[in-house]
Fold these 4 entries.
Entry 1:
Amino acid sequence: MKPMTETHYLDNQFIIAMPTLTDNTFSRTAIYLCQHNADGALGIVINRKSDMKLKEIFMQMDISISSLTAADAPVYVGGPIQQERGFVLHTTDKKWAITLPISETMSLTTSRDIIEAIAKGEGPERYFVALGYAGWGKGQLEQEMLSNSWLNTPFGEPILFDTPTDLRWRMAASQIGIDIHQLTVGAGHA
């Protein structure tokens, strides 16, 4: 018989910074949680563009570019940890060497083969490239949520892939009927 515990993990959800979270790294961020379990959490910030385009990554990795569309795609700042490392959030329509399945439709890949395929125009149907990630140790994210630093909302592909970068924070909150600009210090979370 299993113990009666209520552990809820937030894989495949957004967490959005509450207006009271003023830390420069995470203020007004929307993060897609790729992995959340008893040992901690890993997520990718989805609303911080870097000054870099994907063609610069291709050139740094000495990868030939066939797809001009991919070359001009933005690269995002995925978080403060390992900013020299690339992370690709993508639809789960192809297989890659090092992939973490997040849901039936979304995955996170960190291997070179996906970048090479994107450069050739043969990558996943939809993708999002970031340098670095956001991470939390055991129980850290749960504590931050209890202190009202973060609000969790359902994941929505249109927010990640179709919404302008500067609107993602607000749109993630609006999915659950919240106007993020009207929340105050005493607000709770969903």
Entry 2:
Amino acid sequence: MHDWSGLEVGYDVPALPGMALREVQTPALVVDLDAFERNLARMRSHAEASGMRLRAHAKTHKSADIARLQIERGGACGICCQKVSEAEALVRAGISDILVTNEVRDPVKIDRLARLAARARIIVCVDDPENVAPLSRAAQRHGVTIEALVEIDCGARRCGTLPGAPAVQLARVIDGAEGLRFGGLQAYHGPAQHIADPAERAAAIAAAADVTAQTISLLKDAGLDCDIVGGAGTGSFPFEARSGVYNELQCGSYVFMDADYERIRAEDGGRVGGFENALFVLTSVMSVPVRDRAVCDAGLKALAVDSGLPRVFDRKGLRYDGASDEHGVLAVDGGEVSINERIKLVPGHCDPTCNLHDWFVVVRGETVETLWPVTARGKVF
């Protein structure tokens, strides 16, 4: 439970529990708790129905409160994050099972990761044999065991060693290193999450699953078993779940959804997973200079536009048309727009949008129920 005593609305927080939504100081990051809880339940059902573990990705929200709910109510076996500092913030807040879905190469970061392994189960990705000895030395120095997944490039063309024999050789090096334990494979195809056509997306994941399965077979021949075969995201998880290759899903955006993921269609033409919009940037109209244009207070410092402009939620006749630092331009196509009118925006990309805010204002209906701090905001190192 959080202590709200002594906090001043506007200076410390955008709202306090019990306030009406219309009283929230804007721009603010708002979570619709009813939709959020339904999203948790839907993903838990999807994972259980397919016999998969869910290791939910916290890079979406960077919040210890949400991570706990994903574990306690959403069925997650643990949490993913992207940076050592994110992992540190979550461990301090009580999360005890974390996979850093990234390579850690800097000596200081490696040492921090090893120190963290004394307090929690820590898993990290490796794609280069040269990374193994520094991780091993740090683990021995701190008297811990770090689990390591071999990350393979299964089509994303980002990090990852080649699948097949190079991955097996790397796994052997990890397996022979003191203080490390070979934990399996990381086979995440990031770009496939955003392939709008389901048939094209299915083909990309089928190719990823094929090279992953071949690598698993070679690992077994070498006497190495994979406890974790991880990957999948909100856009593609149904394909990985039924591939028979993966055993852990690493979805993150499902808890919130965003305007970009709305464009990703399931095989039946609906939204993948049936997930709802649960995250909004609440903004206020600050100017109506002409009849067909209004200006709100949510610009580039309140929402990310790398995946496109936000969508105006549940308000006909308005379109978010452009952003500058502190302003958002709304195109008005019919109807009246009033000064201080509150408008919900569905961000184009939820992950970097959350990193712009200190707090989630959590509402049920039109009432603020609680606030969740963005625990790892700015933790990018």
Entry 3:
Amino acid sequence: MIKDPSEFRREAHRMADRIADYFEEIGSYPVKSQVKPGEILSLLPEQPPALPEEIQDIMADFERVIMPGITHWQHPDFHAYFPANSSYASVLAEWLTAALGQQAMIWETSPAATELEERVMQWMKQMFGLPLHWTGVLQDTASASTLAALLTAREKCTGFITNSEGFPSASGLRIYASTETHSSIEKAVKIAGFGRKNLVKVPVDKNFALDAEALEQAIRRDLSEGFTPCCVVATIGTTGSTAVDPVRKTGEICRKYHVWLHIDAAFAGTALILPEMRHFADGLELADSYVFNPHKWMFTNFDASAYYVSDPELLIRTFEILPEYLKTRTRGKVNDYRDWGVALGRRFRALKLWFVIRNFGTEGIRETVRKHLEMASWLSERIGESDDFTLMAPVNFSLVCFRFTPSHIREAEHLNELNQELLARLNSSGKLYLSHTLLNGSYCLRMVTAQTYIGQHHVENAWKIILETSKKLNDEKYMG
């Protein structure tokens, strides 16, 4: 057991070396863990240790038991799902966060955490061209931010009656989102008490973006049937294909019918640091709330979700509660962020953002994001030139959706099966990791080019592996 600072210093130096080694060696690991279900569990003792164990012994088991079960999200050949980026500066800040152990629920419990969060949220408004009248707060995830938005919309819509008396037996409050919206929206609808039947899925256009005309028709139909339109969730960069909903048109519809507009830009929001990408957010000033995740594409390790609102008083009124033990003389003079979301307890998330923004600089972040976009563009061009692959969605950001489509196979079902097998082979190789989605019923491969330290050669090598694996698969199945 570590008993004093000198022992801690010794072990901390060893840990720093191990972390530095990990960053240096990460390319040598299989990207996706190769273990089978239950394999890690079988290596872990069923009973906890009764006596203290040395850190060296714990680390030995870390290497033997834990590392084989790690899927390496920071690997430059990790192209699945979405980026969950870290960086050297972010890791260093996380060490300090753990050491300080701040419980940043109110200003009194950590003035620095509170005021740094306030300043960092102001910085990011400037960096990303967000409306300056917005006010921001850090949440843990976009799911929590979306839940906060729906709860605030609910209270505004019901005159804060739901908070005090609960939902009326037949409230009929309706939430609207596209058929491509993230699953967290449906989860938030359930948690907030709206009921899944009151989530209206709006059709999308040929580019998988919300159809604004269909949205207005749905709202008008609900009004005629006695329902109350409460909130619309629009997306800048859907999870499946990074489609972009028409923000301005949607915002104008929401203003016309007095409906709350929440914008989910969890993944793609980081791209707005580039002035040339801000056309995707045209009309953003019409939104009531907005979220993007620096812990996805802004080189800041999980968790840090930036949530902005047009009217912070509505947010605070939705969540505030004041037991005696939290009353302070500074209340009303400062931000007490425990009133700005679901959680009372709050981590010192602003510290790592402060480190990252200062260590990269705004221009450094722009340069890296721009390179990621260029890599995605390069990949999409190679796919467009190929006779055996097809782009399945517009490449708006750093995600490319494509499909293996050899000319001799016409049946959609067979193509779906072939692409599933191709993905399985690619991922089991350990050389790269991709994920999939369904677009109009077609099974597609998704490849993200947004890891912190990814280079052009990683993307070129991934494309080479995809070509080689697909050819071998095709030859085995159809040419053997």
Entry 4:
Amino acid sequence: MAAILARHPDILTRMAGHAALSILIDCPDLPCLVLLRPDLGRATLHRAPPPHDAAIAGRLSAFLSMLHGEEDGDALFFSGRLQISGNTAAVLALRNALDDAELDLTAELSALTRLPLAPLARALGPRLGLSLYRSA
């Protein structure tokens, strides 16, 4: 998370006063929960829910399609594919900041691993129901 924020510092600016809040990500198809602290540039893994200010729950495919701009976060929420609890303003601030950052997941993963992941993303994307690769 720190590396992504270093490349996209506007995410924290866009979150304003909500960046110091903790947001729990709960995907039932992942083996752990993820607690985000944007202001600290930290994401920690947990087996049980730690104290948090807000939570987002849903399948990994819903999160990925929202992050990659393939599906609207509001539509995912109103369809029930994503559930939000706690400080909804913090969740909205995070979603809006990520939308504005226009993250390319393939580029972000490639930067983190220093590997050219576009071929892998093209191969795995359809299995996840996504096109994780954006052509330039």
